[in-house]
């Protein structure tokens, strides 16, 4: 959290599963140091694949980055094993299996911060608990007994324990109640304000627009549009199709007004 | 504390035969502890245990005669750990059934190699070891061995206990749960998997070497696949990922055949059924622990160490407390 955020450049990233099925097709995106960006798009758009392609976290043998490159502060990092990426400061909160359920919360945090010295560990712990005060109450509980929201907090807290320079979050709000999502969003903003670069995948376009400076819209594995929420709002068709009409204005209820029957509006409504 | 009292009570009260059985149980417990680190904590199922015991025993045979007992045990630990390192490599790519098959290959390779070595070196009946001397002490009785083995088990327990409560233990459990996600937060999965194999087989190798020195006899026929499976049974019955469970499971699987034999001898003495039972004792023994394994897998996957928690939770439910709170206490 103290460390300055890294800049991320992704160029023409293509992720292929089982050598034939293209999950992501030539996606480019840039997240400046200390910025927060979001990837939005309907189910199957390639959001998660993009994130995994960046982190090197693709299912063993079945998925691979076929072409393109990922640069961290200008250094080419694609193809590195996922543990190596973690050591370079890329932390990822996956969509599933985000905590180790058979370890306590404290053990989860210790596992994530195990390369730190004693002093560093204590500072990191203090900083992380300052962002997620709720986590402190559950330190001795098994992570398997936590609710979805609590797990998400522990997962974010674990990711921060390793003092990353780039935080990748897959589905911040999925399956969580609006109150919990608001609190998580606040925490994420606080983390980002501390200088950490954040790239979040988010199904709820309104939340994404609220959080991120730049949005990347994916559909069918391709980048459809990119820009600030303000810029995208003026691209009528795209705004209506992918973001819901009320983008940037109405907060978490944004998707509600997109009643054109497109799938995304429906999803936005569900997750809002 | 309780264990110390039990250990002393056994030392002074038990017959020499009982102490012999206890010694076998302790030797099994050392190996079971090692196996549990690998299978229980790290989630890597292996049936290479008999092979590792054999490597430990044969190394002991080779080294003890020349360099003495302590160096023999140390060499056995190193040799088996090295073998474990090699065997660990397939685990980086294989999991589940495929990993079991790759450790099964070790079993057959080692059995074949030692059989050839033994028959071609003219030691058809196996190797006999001389009396063991530990410095000025002569380990010439079961009781003397018992003292040594209790100390060894205490040390092994302490080492295993410290490991699972520190960095390696947390990394192992994380790898067992989901290894790719463990790598995502920076756990070096390769290193910790191999470490688990090395340490685990080191434990098994020490047990193999001590067993060789204790029984004073080593021959390849002893290291069967059955034996390897018996060790897996120990940790399932005692409790996967449990230090205490490894010891309890080892004790039960080791002592059970003796109990059954004794029971058969006293109950059926002279009876018509007696000779049938006695003729089939090996099968009865084998099926008893097979049955135990099945029962535990189906009804108490946590093993014997899970039982107290289950009893506590049942008692709480009976008293009307919420089942959730009891369950939370239960899983450790």
Description:
The complex is a heterodimer of chains A (272) and B (332). Chain A has 272 residues and is an alpha/beta fold. Chain A is built from eleven helices and ten strands. Chain A has helices at residues 47-55, 82-87, 105-112, 118-131, 133-137, 148-161, 178-193, 205-211, 229-233, 236-243, 263-271; strands at 8-17, 21-31, 36-40, 63-72, 75-76, 90-93, 166-170, 197-201, 214-219, 222-227. A six-stranded mixed sheet of chain A has the order 6-7-8-3-9-10, with helices on both faces. In chain A, strands 2-1-4-5 form a four-stranded antiparallel sheet. Chain A is globular, with a radius of gyration of 18 Å. Chain A starts with 7 loop residues before the first strand and ends with a helix. Chain B is mostly helical. Chain B has two domains: 16-248, no CATH class; 302-332, no CATH class. Helices cover 78% and strands 3% of the residues of chain B. A two-stranded antiparallel ribbon of chain B has the order 1-4. Chain B is globular. The interface between A and B is medium-sized, with 31 and 20 residues.
Topology, please?
The complex is a heterodimer of chains A (272) and B (332).
Chain A: E1 8-17, E2 21-31, E3 36-40, H1 47-55, E4 63-72, E5 75-76, H2 82-87, E6 90-93, H3 105-112, H4 118-131, H5 133-137, H6 148-161, E7 166-170, H7 178-193, E8 197-201, H8 205-211, E9 214-219, E10 222-227, H9 229-233, H10 236-243, H11 263-271
Helix pairs in contact in A: 3-6, 4-6
Chain B: H1 2-13, H2 16-41, H3 49-67, H4 69-91, H5 97-120, E1 127-128, E2 132-134, E3 137-139, H6 142-164, H7 167-177, H8 179-184, H9 189-215, E4 217-218, H10 225-238, H11 243-267, H12 272-279, H13 281-299, H14 307-319, H15 323-330
Antiparallel strand pairs in B: 1-4, 2-3
Helix pairs in contact in B: 2-6, 2-9, 2-10, 2-11, 3-4, 3-5, 3-9, 4-9, 7-9, 10-11, 10-13, 11-13, 14-15
């Amino acid at each position: 959290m103290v460390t300055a955020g890294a800049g991320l450049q992704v160029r023409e990233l293509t992720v292929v599963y089982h050598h034939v099925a293209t999950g992501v097709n030539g996606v480019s995106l840039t997240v400046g140091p200390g910025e927060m960006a979001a990837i939005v798009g309907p189910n199957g758009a390639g959001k998660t694949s993009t994130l995994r392609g960046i982190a090197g976290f693709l299912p063993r043998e079945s998925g691979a980055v076929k072409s393109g490159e990922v640069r961290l502060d200008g250094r080419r990092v694609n193809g590195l094993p996922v543990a190596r990426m973690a050591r370079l400061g890329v932390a990822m909160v996956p969509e599933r299996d985000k905590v180790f359920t058979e370890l306590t919360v404290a053990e989860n945090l210790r596992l994530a911060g195990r390369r730190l010295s004693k002093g560093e560990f204590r500072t990191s712990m203090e900083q992380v608990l300052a962002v997620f005060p709720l986590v402190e109450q559950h330190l001795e509980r098994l992570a398997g007994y936590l609710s979805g929201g609590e797990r998400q907090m522990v997962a974010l807290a674990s990711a921060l324990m390793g003092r990353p320079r780039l935080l990748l979050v897959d589905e911040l709000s999925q399956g969580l109640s609006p109150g919990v999502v608001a609190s998580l969003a606040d925490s994420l903003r606080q983390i980002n304000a501390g200088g950490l670069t954040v790239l979040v995948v988010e199904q709820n376009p309104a939340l994404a627009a609220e959080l991120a400076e730049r949005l990347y819209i994916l559909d069918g594995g391709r980048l459809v549009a990119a820009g600030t929420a303000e810029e995208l709002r003026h691209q009528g068709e795209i705004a209506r199709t992918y973001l819901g009409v009320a983008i940037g204005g109405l907060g978490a209820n944004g998707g509600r007004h997109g009643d054109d029957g497109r799938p995304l509006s429906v999803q936005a409504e569900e997750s809002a | 504390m309780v264990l110390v009292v039990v250990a002393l009570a056994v030392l002074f009260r038990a017959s020499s035969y009982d102490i012999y059985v206890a010694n076998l149980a302790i030797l099994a417990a050392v190996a079971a502890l090692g196996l549990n680190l690998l299978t229980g904590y790290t989630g890597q199922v292996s049936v290479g245990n008999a092979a590792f015991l054999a490597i430990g025993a044969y190394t002991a045979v080779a080294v003890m005669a020349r360099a003495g007992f302590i160096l023999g045990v140390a060499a056995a630990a190193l040799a088996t750990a090295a073998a474990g390192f090699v065997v660990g490599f397939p685990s980086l790519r294989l999991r589940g059934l495929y990993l079991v098959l790759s450790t099964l290959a070790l079993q057959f390779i080692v059995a074949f190699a030692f059989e050839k070595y033994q028959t071609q070196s003219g030691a058809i009946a196996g190797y006999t070891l001389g009396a063991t001397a530990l410095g000025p002490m002569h380990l010439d009785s079961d009781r003397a061995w018992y003292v040594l083995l209790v100390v060894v088990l205490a040390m092994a327990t302490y080492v295993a206990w410290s490991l699972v409560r520190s960095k390696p233990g947390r990394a192992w459990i994380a790898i067992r749960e989901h290894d790719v996600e463990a790598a995502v937060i920076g756990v070096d999965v390769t290193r910790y998997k191999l470490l688990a194999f090395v340490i685990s087989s080191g434990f098994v190798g020490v047990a193999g070497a001590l067993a060789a020195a204790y029984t004073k006899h080593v021959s390849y026929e002893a290291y069967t696949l059955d034996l390897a499976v018996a060790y897996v049974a120990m940790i399932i019955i005692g409790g996967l990922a449990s230090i205490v469970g490894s010891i309890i499971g080892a004790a039960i699987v080791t002592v059970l055949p003796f109990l059954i034999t004794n029971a058969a001898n006293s109950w059926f003495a002279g009876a018509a059924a007696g000779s049938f039972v006695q003729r089939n004792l090996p099968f009865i023994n084998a099926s008893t622990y097979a049955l135990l394994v099945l029962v535990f897998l189906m009804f108490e996957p946590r093993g014997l160490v899970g039982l107290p928690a289950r009893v506590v939770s049942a008692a709480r439910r009976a008293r009307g407390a919420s089942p959730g709170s009891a369950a939370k206490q239960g899983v450790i």
